[in-house]
Amino acid sequence: MNSHDAAIVVYSLFALAGIALELLSRSGHGDIPSLGTVLSRVMHSRSGRIGVMAGWMWIGLHYFAR
Amino acid sequence: MARGAGRHDEMRETRRLNSAVHDPVILVLLLAGIFDGLSGNPVHAVLLIGVALVLGVRIDEPSTHAQEAHLWSRSVKTTWVAIGIAVVYAVAAGSFERYTWPATAVVVLPGLLGVTVAWHEADVGRPAPKPIGRQGAIAWASVFVTLGVWELINLLLQPSLAEGSYDHPTLSTLLEPLLAGHTGRSIALLLWLALGWYLVRR
């Protein structure tokens, strides 16, 4: 396995960890909230809301804009 | 009387400045804008720093349009109209090559619209979400923080900040082939718009 493949594996593990946490939150076991709940909590304040939306805007800028 | 009003304004101004200085979101936006600017992305820098400054200046301003804006975004009819517009927009916008002025415009417009709508929907007219436990907060933060660190490691292992590496790919490098063509760009733009819509409705 070369370093490119290893990097892909690590990115996949992050995706799997996110999916696992989301599934865990829906199972009702433990104290894990869904990602949507986390976002709602963060976005409940004005600055949190604007910060998350600015982050979203930045993703678009990063991949498409000059 | 006038002296009392003046002192009240002064205290309010001090309180607002204090809130702005201690707000981590403003700090993060300012730092991100500064480093994006230093990396040769002046448009990104202007937008991020601009949002930070507006947030700092108007941090204590009460939201007046919250209720109506919230209702607007929850309408089923509006959702279907928005989906139609987003698909047409993504197909048209995806025809522009990346990093050109037309591509910049088609991202900046919905980006600023999203931030503006989020501004008007802030903190009024929605129930407080339930608190997040320590275990849950640590679990999600671990995933995103370690992903960020991993991304940073790969970025620093590139030949230069502007040149991607096959051996140490960042997410941007991995997405390059997808975003090279019209179809891929349109799909990516549609997903980005969908994410923005989802966030605005939180």
Low-confidence stretches of chain B: none
Q: By helix and strand content of chain A, what is the structural category?
A: mainly alpha
**Number of distinct beta strands of chain B:** 0
Mean pLDDT of chain A: 93
Helix residue percentage of chain A: over 70%
Largest sheet of chain B: none
Contiguous runs where pLDDT drops below 50 for at least 5 residues of chain A = none
Q: What features would you describe in this structure?
A:
The complex is a heterodimer of chains A (66) and B (202). Chain A has helices spanning 3-27, 35-42, 46-64. Chain A is flat and about 45 Å long. With 66 residues, chain A is mostly helical. Chain B has 202 residues and is an all-alpha fold. Helices cover 74% and strands 0% of the residues of chain B. Chain B has nine helices and no strands. Chain B has helices at 2-21, 24-38, 42-57, 66-74, 76-93, 101-120, 134-156, 171-179, 182-200. Chain B is globular, with a radius of gyration of 21 Å. The N and C termini of chain B lie far apart (44 Å). The model of chain B has no long low-confidence stretch (mean pLDDT 86). Chains A and B meet through helix 1, helix 2 and helix 3 of A and helix 2, helix 3, helix 6, helix 7 and helix 8 of B.
Brief summary of the model shown:
With 66 residues, chain A is an all-alpha fold. Chain A contains three helices and no strands.
How is the secondary structure organized here?
The complex is a heterodimer of chains A (66) and B (202).
Chain A: H1 3-27, H2 35-42, H3 46-64
Chain B: H1 2-21, H2 24-38, H3 42-57, H4 66-74, H5 76-93, H6 101-120, H7 134-156, H8 171-179, H9 182-200
Helix pairs in contact in B: 2-3, 5-9, 6-9
